[in-house]
Amino acid sequence: MNNRFHTPKFMVKAALGAGLSVLTLGGILWLSSGPPIKGTSTQATDVNTASSELTATLKTDLMTSEYIAVGAVPTEIMPEAIPPSDIEKMVTVSSGDTLMSLLVTAGATRSEAHGAITALTDVYSPKKIRPGLDIALTFASPTSIETLDTTRDVGPLRAMQFQPSVERIVKVSTAEGENLRYIAEEIQRPLTMKMARSTNEINSSLYLAAQNVSVPNDIMIKLIRAYSFDVDFQREIQKGDRFEVVYEAYYDEDNNLARTGEMIYGNLTLSGDDLQLYRYTPSSGFTDYFNEKGQSAKKALMRTPVDGARLSSRFGKRKHPVLGYTKVHKGVDFAAPRGTPIYAAGDGVIVRANRFSSFGNYIKIRHHSGYQTAYAHLKGFAKGIKKSKRVRQGQVIGYIGTTGRSTGPHLHYEVLFNGRQVNPLGVKLPAGEKLKSVDLKKFKVEQKKINQMMNDLKKPAALAQVQPN
Prior knowledge:
By secondary structure, the protein is an alpha+beta fold. Helix content is 17%, strand content 32%. The longest helix has 21 residues, at 437-457.
């Protein structure tokens, strides 16, 4: 008899001893909890010689008794098998990481990682992945039937997903029925743009007043930059002044703020005087902020080329904090945390960008009309900043530091006119563009529309009602 159809005798004896009926059909041992089959003996050990009457009786017993195939399943019914769960992992991109190294370190084989990255290139360049990005990975369980390598703590890589922007989700997953062929897809999140308005009284600083009414940081920076040509935020802001800002806000499907757009309008009420600014693009094509008379807020130079800094030392005579004696301070100092970005105060060409005497890391820019600006004690220079490089106003050129003769992180900022240092906070700067003729008429129309929109935003539930034109 073939071994795979052999019925062990100890099973038969044990079954008969327990008062169960025994029958083998096709080599499978059946046990019946019913009464012994007619014509059989409870002492019999070989049921293959049972009479044909057994077959008829078995048909009846099969209708009334429970039979279990010995060797196929235990005598107790096994519950339905639960498939092993996938394993989820979250990895964060750090400086120096490559997508290949991240996937392999997380548990993917090089073959799986290569397949996923190759598929990804159809919708997103792996070179664009930056430090700080979170990537969700899905692996099969190491106990799944797909896993052949028992030394791995995870099974094959099944999916990879990340969100490079608030509007975009990128996903790579295995093709249906295949383990190592990956397909990529891009999912666009629908965002709704609405106009938002914020206003508050200033009790200590403009920044805190804006923070207290949840003005997004990027909108706050745009407001400060727009006014940085005319307003000395250290001396001119007083308790009881106010600000107002209107900006584009993009909301997701759950009505959560996803991102912001442009600042459309700003107003600073300083000592009772309103300084209103409207965003407008004239025929020149250069978008700017203009006051109610059509005069650009932009000047040749910014008075404050750093955001959120504290004026720590003014222009003029002072007792030097390191040398200990009184000498003329030919610039102004702005104290800020190490690494805070520094902006080019105006369009121009870099004439120096290196280490320079007691100034430490130092940049000097030549502007038009005889003006130059200088920036000292920098931690370092922005990428690409070097001598003869042309820069635009507001471009990041370096970062706050404490190199050279310095007692703490700050920016020493100078404005030079015809080679002589002048007070950056007091010098009269050349005005920007003034709208005329057709541009002025079109600006007045746009100004009226913005004013009407602001009135609508002041009404209850305005945020949900006012839509952009």
